[in-house]
Amino acid sequence: MNAAVAVFDVNRIRKDFPILHQTVHGKPLVYLDNAATSQKPQAVIDAISHFYATDCSNIHRGVHQLSERSTRNYEEARIKIQQFIHAADPREIIFVRGTTEGINLVAQTYGRANVGPGDEIVISALEHHSNIVPWQILSEEKGAALRVAPINDRGEILLDEYESLLSQRTRLVSIAHISNALGTINPVRRMVELAHRRGIPVLLDGAQAAPHMKVDVQEIGCDFYVFSGHKLYGPTGIGVLYGKASLLDEMPPFQGGGDMISSVTFEKTTYNTLPYKFEAGTPNIEGTIGLAAAIDYVNRLGLDSIAAYEAELLEYGTEKLSRVPQLRLVGTAREKAAVLSFVIDGVHPHDVGTILDHQGIAVRTGHHCAQPVMDRFGVPATTRASLAFYNTREEIDALVAGIGKVKEIFG
Ligand code: PMP
Q: Quick one: pLDDT band at residue 6, thresholds 50, 70, 90?
């Protein structure tokens, strides 16, 4: 066990998450659905509640005390996020509803302005629907085409094939940092480098990466990076789009309305500067405050310690599940994080999920919004246990025991 894992006191950490301490169907809750959404520490719940109890006001428009406080909190959250992903400037942090909205924003602004007939957008075979459909909508509108980098049987992107898809027609690469269905950590630095060599910008879908590893957008070199607050122990309805200022400056606005304007007449509207040009309407103020509290919490634990602890837990789970007869892990990349997707011969994943639920174990079953991944592995669905730093070896043992019950029932 390495030093980072040794200092990680999971029992103390679990006390910070009130929701974990309940029974489901009379059994202690074992929450293994963290890739869908993670649970919130008391500090996040308190920060949101404090906002409504003491500071609630709209931002940027009021001169009164409450509005000033709300505005300060909102802008401090932006700076916290800038530091969290090591962006060069807070103007490069745009608040959105989540990963999905962030990708749609880029597709509808950068994409519409830069993609034309015959152009191509490169994605990969392990993308979430949120990183497929916005590009299909854009491609249909513009007469462009999607090109898909294939994956091998472990669920790793074939880099040579990826590279061969990059051409003079490629307008953008959009790739997951970590796959939600398989857990694969993609070699994003290398992938960005290969695209940049040809002058192609890269968007990274960081929905599954931001909660599990240190992200440094300048070190990776990507042009856009998106993630959701609710997977990072923060509230739902808030997410982040990072974009290089030089690109964001050139992009047309996404939505029109309050705060994104500099001046409006019936003849012409001029747009606000970054980041406000992309933040039309009253934003999710409480969301930014909750997300900032989540980032404080995660920073206190340290992302390196979190990653080391989770890697250890993943190894433990992989080893235990590999020993279960008739169980096949789907997604066995050498670089992998926090996801155990599997199928059991002769049992539909929905039945697995239901029987586990009766034992208090929350997992997700289905296609995980990644139908092409299921097609690639020739399965209609999988059962997915996804980990967070508050999970324990005992919970993995409970999962394995639960699977034993499934097999008993389906004999
Ligand atoms: N991309 C990936 C890799 C995801 O895991 C998810 C959430 N499952 C999304 C995009 C979409 O995130 P959201 O629903 O928060 O917009």
A: low
Asked, for residue 261, whether it belongs to a domain, the answer is: yes
Which residues, including other chains, have CB under 8 Å from residue 215's CB and lie 6 or more apart?
84, 85, 86, 177, 206, 209, 225, 227
Q: By alpha-carbon position, which residue is closest to atom 12 of ligand 1?
A: 99
Q: Which pLDDT score is estimated for 3?
A: 54
Is 130's C-beta closer than 6 angstroms to any atom of ligand 1? yes
Pick the last residue of a domain from 279, 299, 319.
Answer: 299
Q: Which of 187, 186, 177 is nearest to 211 (CA)?
A: 177
One domain, residues 258 and 307: no
pLDDT digit string, tens, across residues 384-404: 999 999 999 999 999 999 999
Total domains, the chain: 2
Q: Is 222 a catalytic residue?
A: no
Residue 361 domain-assigned?
Answer: yes
Nearest-angstrom CA–CA distance, 411 and 404:
10
Residue 20 belongs to some domain of the structure: yes
Q: How much is the pLDDT for 8? A: 86
How far is the centre of ligand 1, averaged over its atoms, from the C-alpha of 116 (Å)? Answer: 27
What distance in Å separates the CA atoms of residue 347 and residue 365, rounded to the nearest whole number? 12
Same structural domain for residues 374 and 278? no
> Which one of 148, 369, 379, 400 is the catalytic residue?
369
Which atom in ligand 1 lies closest to the alpha carbon of residue 102?
A: 16
Centroid of ligand 1 to alpha carbon of 180 (angstroms): 8
Closest C-alpha residue for ligand 1 atom 14: 100
On the question of pLDDT at 21 being above 70, the answer is yes
One domain, residues 342 and 369: yes
User: From ligand 1's centre to the CA of 1, what distance in Å?
Assistant: 32
Per-residue DSSP letter, 258: T
Task: Give burial (CB, 10 Å; 0-12/13-18/19+) of 237.
Answer: middle
Please tell me if the CB atom of residue 176 comes closer than 6 angstroms to any atom of ligand 1.
yes
Q: Where are the alpha helices (DSSP H) in 107-237?
A: 112-114, 133-142, 159-165, 188-196, 217-220
End-of-domain residue from the set 275, 299, 323 = 299
**What CATH number is attached to the domain comprising 8?**
3.90.1150.10
**Is any ligand 1 atom within 6 A of the Cβ of residue 228?**
yes
Whether ligand 1 lies within 6 angstroms of the CB of 174 is answered as: no
Is 38 inside any structural domain?
Answer: no
288 and 151 both lie in a single domain:
yes
Range of the domain at 193: 45-299
